[in-house]
Amino acid sequence: MKPGEYLDFKKEDLVGMDFKCVWESMEECQNLGLTKSIGVSNFSSKKLQTLLATAKIPPALNQVEMNPVWQQKKLRKFCQENGILITAYSPLGGNKEGTWRTNRVMDSDVLKQIANSKGKTIAQSFNKERMKQNIDILDWSLSSEELEMIDQIPQQKGNPAISFISNQGPFKSVEDLWDELRSSISSSCNNEIKAMPLVGMGTSSYPPTNMEKAKSAIVEAIKVGKDVKSLPVERELIEPLDIKSVWEGMEECKRLGLTRDIGVSNFTCQMLHHLLSIAKIPPALNQVEMSPIWQQKKLREFCNEKGIHITAYSPLGAFGTQWGDNSVIECDVLQEIANSKGKTTAQIALRWVYEQGVSLVAKSYNKERMRTNLDIFDWSLTHEESHKIAQIPQRKTVTFASILGPHDLVLDIDQQL
């Protein structure tokens, strides 16, 4: 969208939110184990205060616009006092053409002056080198004088409600927009299904193909959740997967615009072959365990032929979990290559996975390890080193039996994998 254009939706598509009822449902999702935590987005101090007055489970997080030109001082203080973590979106202001994106952050004279004095940048991009620069913020700090300079920057919100206002659109003024929302807010739940506000719904397309079907899909998805509170699980909670029915439901979600793509996890070549024989929409991705000691050669070849992308989990062996071990990190071949290149064993393992043309998911809470794990893009393995890794004896690390328990169905799945 360009400046001056507006979002083409009808007034009836925007409804007020019954915060109490919605939050009770979200609390129920957490109680059922369907989510680890629940939170909010774009909540002011006043909205949070209203929510906290009735909530049994307080929000863990509030996602809001925040950057040097919109510092949210009052909101940050309130959230800190109430134990609510803030996640900042648009920390660089967007810096692209669009209805609500501006370059006020990137063009700030104060920030430019500080960046020049420290030999740093204020840039952001999908360019690999710039991504690395954006992460390079952990081993230095701003001085008290620099913080004071930033503190004095005139404040201006970059994503105002005016973005939804246009003389050609359904809302001619901000008052028109909010008055319309306020007038539709119900004072009580009354145990009836409420329409979900379309703005903020999080769908991948606007508008969804059919609102009733979209609502039904969400409700049905929640209903099928199992009340699993601990691991391993009881045998009666484990059921065989009806792949055809599940995949048809996922295809319907994609057609409704509820998701951009659909994929699978831990599917073997045989399972993928069966799925492809019945699927109208093929899976975009297969997430599987993959590392130098479980290289998945046959599966990678199959997925490459079928246009299915692979994402590798546990590329470092998931050491420290109940299902992982240290076999990757302590692999003699990887350690030898790491020593010869002045790298860590983890970097060698991650670089090998990266060079196979797959994406990967590595986990660490240590800032320094996160930085070293990312430092794999400006060097490569030699042909000889890759050949050595290809000869490593293969052994699967992650088994479902170690997580869910040694039940017959679980052991059968492990055997297939």
UniProtKB/TrEMBL annotation:
Q: What domain of life is recorded for the organism?
A: Eukaryota
Sequence ranges assigned to domain NADP-dependent oxidoreductase in this UniProt record? 21-94, 241-392
Among Pfam families, the record links this protein to: Aldo_ket_red
Q: Which GO terms describe its molecular function?
A: oxidoreductase activity
The cross-references to InterPro entries, in alphabetical order and at most eight, read: AKR, Aldo/ket_reductase_CS, NAD(P)_OxRdtase_dom_sf, NADP_OxRdtase_dom
SUPFAM superfamilies (UniProt xref): NAD(P)-linked oxidoreductase (SSF51430)
Q: What is this protein called?
A: NADP-dependent oxidoreductase domain-containing protein
Give the organism the record lists.
Cannabis sativa (Hemp)
